[in-house]
Structure formats: C-alpha cells, structure tokens
Amino acid sequence: MNRFLYSLLLYLALPLVPLKLLWRGIKQPAYLKHWGERFGFYNTAVSKSVIWLHCVSVGETRAAEPLIKELQLQYPNHQILITNSTPTGRETGKALFDDNVQRVYLPYDLPFAVNNFLNHFKPKIGLLMETELWFNLIAACKQRDMSLLLLNARLSENSAKGYAKLGKLVSESLQNLSAIAAQTAEDFARLQTLGATNMSVAGNLKFDVKPPADSMDKGLQLRKLLGSKRIIFLVASTRKGEEKHILEVVKGLDILTVIVPRHPQRFNDVESIIQQSGLTYQRRSNLVGGVDRNIQVVLGDSMGELFTYYAACDFTFIGGSLLEYGGQNLIEAACMGKPILIGPHTFNFADATTNAIRAKAAIRVKNSVALRDRIQYLLHNAPKRKKMGEAALRFSEASTGATARTMKLIAQYLR
Q1: N or C: fewer beta carbons within 10 Å in the chain?
Q2: pLDDT per residue over 252-303, tens digit each?
Q3: Is the CATH number of domain 3-204+401-411 3.40.190.10?
C-alpha cells in the first residue's frame, strides 16, 4: 500500500464517521462533543511555543504524566498540548493536569485535517506515545521539517506482523520519524525489522509514574468501607468476556472480590453479568455505610481510583490477560507493593510481565482453574502475600529512569 491509496480509503470512509461517533455517543455522550477538532478545526488560543504530545487514551496519558511534569519544569516558557483520541483519555488529562496543559482531540489522519492541526498549533516538537503511527501526520511533519519522536514505543509480535503487511507505507513512516525511544530490546528489534532507524532503548515511562500522594489514605478509607477484616481480591482492568469467568472462579471463596472494568462504558453491562451470576454485590458508587458481610462482589464503577483500589486490596489479578487481549498494565500494582496474578495473554506488556515474574512479584496462571488455585493459595498464605508485595516494590523501584533518558533525547531536538 502507498500513502495515496491509504488516504483514498480514508476519504471513502469519511461519510461513515458521524455515524460511528453517534453510535459511540449512545453509551458515551462525550463522543458527541468537539466534532470539529476531529477534522482539524480548533478555536483554542495559542500564545506560546507548543510542545505537543499525542496520548491515545487513558493508559498513554497516565504513562506520560512524569514526562509532562518534567517538560513543564525544564521548558516553562512553552505550552504543553495533549491530544487524545478518546473522551476518557481527555478526561484523564483534565484530572491529572487541570488547566496547566491544553487538551484537544487529534484529528483523523486525513491530509486536510492534519494540516489544519499543524497550521493552527505550529508545534515546535511532536511526541507520539507508544504505538501511534499516523502516516499522513508523520508525512506532514516531515514536510515541515518538524521534529516528531515516537516515545515509550512498544510493538507486540502480532502488531508487527500486521504492520509488515503494509510494506513501504510503514517503513517510510518509521524512517520519517526524527527518533524512536523503544521500551525494550524486543520492541527495538521488531521496529528495526519494519525499517525503523535512529532508535534507542529508554525503558518504560510507566515505571516512573508515582501514585497520588493521598493514595494510601484513600485506600485505607476504602478498606474500611470494604471491611477491614476481610481478604480483598482486586480484579483490575477487566475486558469484555472476562468477568463471567472471574465470577465463576471466585464462587464459594471466603473473599470480597472487587471488579474494576477497563472501560467505564461497560459498568452497566458488567453489573448485569454480576446479577446473572447469582452473587451478591454492591456498586462502588453506592458504598456509603460500608459493605455488608453477605456481599461477595463490589463493582468498581468509578474513574481515576485505580491506585486507591490497589492500596485497599490484599492481592490483585490484572485483567485483559485471561482472554486474548494482550494484558493490561501491572506496573501500577507493583509500585503499590501488591502481589500480582496474571493470565496467559500478556503480549502487550511482555517484558514487564516476564521481569515481574522473574522478580517473584507476580505469578502467571494458565487458565481459570489455575487462577482459582492461586487465589486459594494466596488467600490462606499471608507470609507469601507479604513476600510478593515486597518483591513488587523492589521490582518497581529497580525499573525507573525512563523519564530521564527520554528527556535527554527530547533535548537533542528541542533547543
């Protein structure tokens, strides 16, 4: 595929975009707002030189937090602009930085839209987070001789195979990037195979994310509501289809299971799944006087509280890994010093997962049967939970430093 054909396909799909946004807006009304930005039309005032970061959604925005704070510290005369693709990512940026950064949607990768975006904000530098390859955007930055870096870059084996099918379109785009900072040597090798140049390994920025200062206090408050004497099992960032398996796993066990879905638009769907399971439950939003002893499940229907949930639990399972989603981030659990259980599918965080298991901070389970066995093991083994929690803290602390390495790279292009 070449870029002309790629752009043509995008233009042909353009009439369907409003329908897609309307459909998503049924469950997430925020998708009905700021449509103009998605086509490159902005009314945001620009008064300073702009440092622009693109963070697709929640995970990328949270991962960029230490980097953004360091950029604000070292480049106080610049305006930080965060672009997102999802409303939840945009809301996360608001929660983390309030009005200290500008927030807009990145437009669709249509030539006229990306040119409108670049003409309006005139960024001094662009920083793409993780695996964002927008071919027209990259080409437009190259034509302007604007530095564009791919940071915290990760590429799973499956994604690499998919990109390889696009051939020259991908290799040219990777070579048009000013620099690439990969998370791991494995990511480096996969990107290099696709044609990437000017690369380095900087580590994972997510290890540098610090819990909010009040996380432990809020966790203690939540723990009192959940029950100070109960064993709390947190199932974090579950994806569609996983909750049904988890609920079967925990039936009959003397624990309180807290399930926090990855996507907030699924809260009501997950509540229906819990109801169908026959287990007694309460929603986090309804925890006023605490959880009754007969409650077996709490649905974590709140945003921005994951560190609080980790602080309140005894051990955790990381969602997205029981089914073939590739796993979610276990780093937040590790930096809170919690024993971690993880499923078989972790290709999105392969290196971090392998190292956490090697450090004895995490245990991998092959399926639901093995998960129940390990839950029972940790339920009745407080010394093991303590050792794993201590190992998780050591693992987290030993993996920091990506922000400093990334800032040195940025400094070469932002003078």
Answers
A1: C
A2: 999 999 999 999 889 999 999 999 999 999 999 998 888 988 999 999 999 8
A3: no
Residues 6+ apart with CB under 8 A from 278: none
d(C-alpha 372, C-alpha 253), whole Å: 9
Q: Do domains 3-204+401-411 and 215-398 have the same CATH topology?
A: yes
φ, ψ dihedrals at 207, nearest 5°:
-70, -20
Fold of 215-398: Rossmann fold (3.40.50)
Kindly name the residue from 60, 65, 186, 243 that is annotated as catalytic: 60
Query: What confidence tens digit (pLDDT) does each residue in 196-249 have?
Result: 999 999 999 999 999 988 999 999 999 999 999 999 999 999 999 999 999 999
What pTM, to 2 d.p., does this model score?
Answer: 0.85
How many CB atoms neighbour CB 228 within 10 A? 10
Residue 60 among the catalytic residues? yes
What is the residue extent of each domain of the chain?
A: 3-204+401-411, 215-398
Mean pLDDT of the chain: 95
Site of tokens 């981030």: 329
pLDDT at 131: 84
Of the candidates 216, 411, 242, which has an alpha carbon nearest to the alpha carbon of residue 319?
A: 242
Sequence-ordered list of residues with C-beta below 8 angstroms from that of 363, at least 6 positions apart, any chain: 339, 340, 341, 342, 357, 374, 388
Amino acid at the residue 338: K
Is residue 371 within 8 A of residue 249, CB to CB? The reply is: yes
194 DSSP assignment: T
* Nearest-angstrom CA–CA distance, 262 and 11: 32
* Nearest residue to 64 via CA among 97, 38, 40: 97
Summarize the confidence of residues 15-39 as an average pLDDT: 95
CA angle 296, 298, 303 (to 5 degrees): 170
Residue-wise pLDDT tens digits, 91-138: 999 999 999 999 999 999 999 999 999 999 999 999 999 988 999 999
| pLDDT at 289 (0 to 100) | 84
Alpha helices by DSSP H, 313-349:
331-335
Euclidean distance between CA atoms 242 and 236, whole angstroms: 11
